[in-house]
Design a protein that fits this description.
A alpha+beta (301), B alpha+beta (312), C mainly alpha (512), A: 301 residues, 4-stranded antiparallel beta sheet, two-stranded antiparallel sheet, 7% strand, B: 312 residues, alpha+beta, Rieske Iron-sulfur Protein, 3 domains, 5-stranded antiparallel beta sheet, 33% helix, 16% strand
Chain lengths: 301, 312, 512
């Protein structure tokens, strides 16, 4: 036991505790928050299989960056970083005028960011807003941007998402829903408990408070359903640890089948407006036509 | 056989001859109308028979309804047209006789009640009184089984839920909510553990758990410990009429009741900002236990749901 | 022998009398009950023919449709809140735990042959039933048919309106789906809001706290037995009074306070009314075939912690929903007690006031007009401007309440903020009656002063003389007015063969 040896042993121990320790701890906490070397995202949940890399299958590339994660129900794929250059160009063309060249947004007078900061929101958010046509916004001052025909196609949206994500990688990534094995009955029950309160039980949407509204679900594709549920766009709450990927898959199946293709065995669905429409039809068509018959049967003096 | 003539006095009876204009059909062209009605009846018969056939082969609902509806409609139109165009067109008249009876009959009717009745009672006042009393009491107590047997008395039931000190908050599948589950802007419906499948649990104990921040949150003075790490819980039963307040707008931080659009601000104790709800949603005090589960500190501090007389 | 056969036939005919087997049968009946006079009077009863008198029949016959379809439904529906697991052809419900009431209704819709048609016919017939009652009541009101001697009939009719609405509410709550279950929750809270006895009433009616397991079976018995029983009894009295007092009629040629002009019960009126019954059944069936109503499988079973947005009651309850939405939050609590006026006023007091006004209207009008005469001739609405304006004002008020139950649909459709729509409704509710009354009054006065106002005008034929002057002469009456040329005749007791000896009146002496 020379002094040199002891000194080296002490130095090694020192490095071990104070060097690797934080790395281990940091890695552990980073796994919990869903990624290596990422800042805390708004979508954090520690529940596994709930939209974050805390999932059954996690695939990393050679540099250790997570490129996909998920399970049998939903696979989340990070956009390829090779698209980032194209994405930056597209962003500067279409988005920078409101969201700033660095995607930092412009906070407006104390409200929650009229042109929000997009950094750290994750690719699913960016992709949802662009592919549903809401962004680029037709009227940047309106309270809620409506769904329109998308001005940028799928590849362009992914590219923009890739670039924004490169500024500060975050989750969830772009979901791909595997509907095989989805249980539409569970989806129906989940829809009634979580979604019907805003979107109505038939999925038609309606006006909410302060000029906001819940949009109709009749035309939304499966991927965007999953993105909306996981990211909670606008005033919609985000469903993270309270819904597992399997439950989201069931919901997607329910929305894309029963909501968008209702069976309507009883005849015309009357627009899904419920008793209001039924009352109109009953009075105008029912009593109206019968009163017309009465007009024929009786005299007119 | 010889016919027997009975001698009777001739009487005058009102009658109309067949060619009287009142008895003629209203239609200008009865032949044509008859053919049209016959066509209607024919179509009606075909359609009604078609209903029978459709039923036999278990056809779709709209086919069953179309055949039956069309058949009934054609038959009905035919019958109405027969009555309106082919039957005697009239008009006919009959006299109204006033319903008022002659005064002597009215007097006799009233007298039967007043004089005969009075005669009886006058002499037996005590009996009348006792009978009246008995019938009166009977009519009151007869209502008791119709009312009281219907259900239990409320007593204190409306003042308590099943949340207790230490109750775990679980979602509708029975899974306990942990502190890492929700992100800011998430909402989940929770129940005290064990009640999520019961009627009472769903109706009375239903609670919304919202994460409005990453830090401890204070909604009102005195509630500093109630919302740890931004998890705030309110009763889901609207204080207006009891509808579940499931509609959460996360940027406006408003809980909106879907029934009559009362709007509750979740940052200040769910005080209603607009709409008919009169009181804030009661807030459930929470704490986070060392394992990270969200649990209740106690039951709600007031009665949940809509107002009633005994509620202070 | 052939001659024996012939004479036997003649003997049979002679013994049957001049009216054949029917006459003999009626004779046997008359021997036992004495139906001849009453029966004749029944068959001769005159019904005036105006088309607006048909509206009550729409209500009556849609009630018949309700009874028939209702019997069918009652054979398959199970009024129980016991939880079962649904396994059936509608996959989004497969494996879900639902009440037996809900499961049996879904099975009715998907598994029972013609079940969906019957369900939809039943529901459409209800909408038509209540709508027809309202329109019929409006006709009776605006023509003054509720005056002496028909006040009792008006009272019975008002009670029938309330019973029809209540039975409709009970009926659509039976499937225990998410939409109607929310309505039941609201009904429970309305019961709770009654001062002093609210919580007791709620617990008694529901057998405990909400939801309990007693409410669906109790609603069922009320819906198929108690309330229809009362309705049938009241409708019978309503019809009997109509029969006995005879229908009212509009003033016109040959029509006085002391007679009724129209068609006799048999055969004309019976033909028209039976045909109308078939037409109403047919239209209801066509609606049930092509227009989906109350698709409870899409709503899912009721769960007290679930709700859908834009949930409304059936249209005839809409005025309650509208009142509850727009009423401000005026709760009153002190001394340890609460009176939830924000519920009590719109849900109990307001409808109570409206229906009380309806009930006492005949007495009110008697007091204001001091008119205690018997009236069998109807008023033209424009000739009674105060009554017409008052009726329109009340109808307008109730219509705004109905409109107010769709505040979210209006806000969504017109892209307005919800609070703005609700405030607009609050103001409209107060302002509309005060605008409707003078407006209607003025219109009535206008119609009165216009020559022939409200009546069909006779056209003028314009011809030109040889000098070029235009001359207008009244044109011949319309072709279909021609049967009005005849003065009304008594219903003939006998119809005789046309002979040259019959005099103009058709009165002859007949040997018997």
């Amino acid at each position: 036991m020379t002094a040199t040896f002891l000194k080296r042993l002490g130095a090694l121990t020192f490095v071990a505790i104070f060097g690797f320790g934080p790395v281990v701890l940091f890695a552990a906490s980073a796994n919990a928050s869903g990624g290596t070397a990422s800042k805390q995202t708004p979508y954090q949940t520690s529940r596994s299989n709930a939209g974050t890399p805390n999932s059954d299958n996690v695939v990393k590339n050679s540099k250790g960056v997570i490129i996909s994660y998920g399970n049998g129900a939903i696979t989340y794929n990070a956009p390829s970083s090779a698209l980032a250059a194209l994405g930056k160009a597209l962003f500067l063309q279409n988005c920078a005028s409101c969201h700033g060249t660095g995607a930092n947004g412009v906070p407006a007078n104390g409200t929650n960011g009229a042109f929000p900061n997009l950094v750290g929101l994750g690719p699913a958010t960016i992709d949802f807003w662009i592919e549903s046509g809401r962004m680029p916004a037709a009227d940047p001052r309106s309270v809620q941007a409506p769904r329109r025909e998308a001005r940028l196609n799928h590849d362009q949206a992914i590219a923009i998402a890739a670039w924004v994500n490169s500024l500060s990688p975050a989750f969830p990534s772009i979901p791909t829903v595997n509907l095989k094995g989805a249980n539409v009955a569970d989806g129906a029950a989940l829809f009634a408990l979580n979604c019907a309160a805003c979107h109505t039980i038939e999925g038609d949407g309606d006006a909410l408070a302060m000029n906001t509204y819940a949009p109709s679900l009749r035309h939304i594709p499966a991927t965007q359903v999953a993105e909306a549920i996981r990211t909670g766009p606008g005033n919609m709450p985000r469903f993270t640890g309270n819904l597992s990927d399997y439950q989201v898959r069931d919901l997607v199946k329910f929305v894309t089948t029963e909501i968008q293709h209702p069976q309507n065995p009883g005849g015309f669905g009357l627009g899904g407006l419920g008793p209001v429409a039924e009352g109109f039809v009953g009075l105008a068509l029912g009593v109206g036509i019968l009163a017309l018959f009465g007009f024929w049967i009786g005299e007119r003096q | 056989m010889s016919e027997v003539h009975e001698q009777r006095t001739p009487v005058v009876l009102s009658g109309l001859s067949e060619d009287d204009p009142h008895l003629q059909p209203a239609a200008k062209n009865p032949q044509l109308v008859e053919r049209v009605i016959a066509l209607n009846f024919l179509l009606g018969i075909v359609l009604v028979a078609g209903f029978g056939a459709s039923y036999w082969v278990n056809a779709k609902s709209w086919i069953l309804g179309a055949t039956m509806g069309g058949g009934l409609l054609f038959i009905g139109v035919g019958v109405v047209a027969w009555g309106k165009y082919l039957m005697p067109k009239g008009p006919f008249v009959e006299d109204r006789h006033p319903h008022t009876s002659p005064q002597v009959d009215r007097d006799a009717f009233a007298a039967a009640i007043v004089e005969r009745g009075g005669n009886v009672i006058k002499r037996r006042k005590m009996l009348g009184g006792l009978l009246g009393g008995g019938l009166g009491i009977f009519s009151v107590v007869a209502i008791f089984p119709l009312l009281r047997s219907l259900g239990p008395l409320p007593k204190g039931t409306l003042f308590h839920t099943d949340w207790r000190s230490g109750s775990y908050a679980v979602d509708q599948t029975g899974r306990r909510i942990q502190v890492g589950d929700l992100a800011v802007g998430s909402i989940v419906t929770v129940f005290p553990e064990g009640t999520q499948d019961t009627d009472r649990g769903q109706a009375v104990d239903q609670t919304v758990l919202i994460r409005i921040s990453n830090q401890n949150f204070t909604t009102q003075k005195g509630r500093e410990t109630w919302a740890p790490l931004g998890y705030v819980a309110y009763s889901k039963m609207c204080t207006h009429l009891g509808c579940p307040v499931g509609l959460y707008e996360q940027q406006l931080q408003l809980l909106v009741c879907p029934c009559h659009q009362s709007m509750f601000n979740v940052t200040n104790g769910a005080i209603p900002q607009f709409g008919p709800a009169p009181r804030p949603l009661p807030q459930l005090p929470l704490f986070i236990d060392p394992q990270g589960y969200i649990r209740a500190q106690s039951d709600y501090h007031e009665a949940v749901g809509p107002g009633f007389w005994e509620r202070p | 022998m052939s001659s024996d056969v012939v004479s036997t036939k003649r003997m049979k005919q002679q013994s049957l009398g001049p009216y054949g087997a029917v006459g003999k049968a009626l004779g046997e009946l008359d021997d036992r009950i004495g139906v001849a006079k009453g029966g004749s009077s029944f068959l001769n009863k005159i019904f005036p023919d105006h088309w607006s008198f048909m509206l009550g029949e729409i209500a009556l016959y849609s009630f018949i449709v309700l009874l028939v379809t209702g019997v069918f439904l009652s054979l398959y529906y199970i009024p129980s809140q016991a939880i079962v697991t649904y396994h059936g052809s509608y996959l989004p419900l497969d494996g879900q735990h639902v009440t037996q009431a809900y499961a049996s209704t879904v099975d009715l819709s998907f598994a029972v042959r013609a079940g969906l048609l019957m369900r939809q016919m039943h529901h459409w017939a209800t909408n038509i039933f209540v709508g027809a009652i309202v329109i019929h009541m409006a006709r009776v009101f605006f023509t003054g048919a509720f005056r002496k001697p028909r006040e009792l009939n008006w009272t019975i009719g008002s009670a029938l309106l309330i019973l029809a609405i209540v039975n409709g509410f009970l009926g659509y709550s039976l499937p225990d789906d998410l939409v109607s279950g929310t309505g039941i929750r609201i009904a429970y809270s309305i019961l709770l809001s009654i001062p002093l006895v609210g919580s007791y009433l709620g617990f008694l009616v529901f057998g405990g706290n909400f939801p309990g397991t007693a409410v669906i079976p109790r609603f069922y018995i009320l819906h198929i037995l108690i309330v229809p029983g009362i309705i049938i009894a009241l409708v019978s009295v309503h019809m009997f009074l109509l029969y006995r007092q005879k229908h009212t009629q509009f003033p016109g040629r040959g029509r006085t306070e002391k007679n009724v002009v129209g068609s006799p019960m048999f055969p004309v009126f019976m033909a028209k009314t039976t045909g109308y019954l078939f037409i109403i059944g047919g239209v209801t069936a066509l609606l049930g075939a092509f227009a989906q109503i109350n698709p409870i499988w899409q709503f899912g079973p009721y769960d007290a912690s679930r709700i859908g947005y834009a949930v409304q009651p059936d249209w005839y309850m809409g005025f309650l929903d509208g009142a509850l939405r727009i009423w401000p939050s005026w709760s009153f609590h002190s001394f340890g007690y609460t009176i939830p006026f924000e519920v009590f006023i719109p849900a109990i007091i307001l409808p109570g006031l409206i229906f009380n006004l309806i009930f006492v209207w005949p007495a009110l009008e008697r007091r204001f007009t001091k008119d205690h005469e018997t009236h069998n001739l109807l008023d033209r609405p424009s000739y009674r401007p105060k009554r017409t304006a008052a009726g329109v004002a009340v109808l307008a008020f109730v219509s705004v309440l109905f409109l107010a139950s769709s505040t979210d649909v209006i806000a969504n459709f017109f892209h307005l903020p919800l609070s703005a729509v609700i405030w607009a409704m609050r103001i409209l509710t107060i302002v509309t009656p005060f605008v409707a009354y003078p407006l209607t009054y003025k219109i009535c006065l206008e119609l009165q002063t216009t020559k022939g106002g409200g009546k069909r005008k006779t056209p003028n034929m314009v011809s030109r003389t040889a000098e070029g002057e235009y001359v207008a002469t009244p044109a011949p009456v319309y072709v279909d007015d021609q049967h009005d040329e005849l003065a009304p005749a008594e219903v003939p007791k006998f119809i005789t063969a046309a002979t040259p000896e019959s005099d103009g009146d058709g009165v002859r002496t007949i040997d018997r």
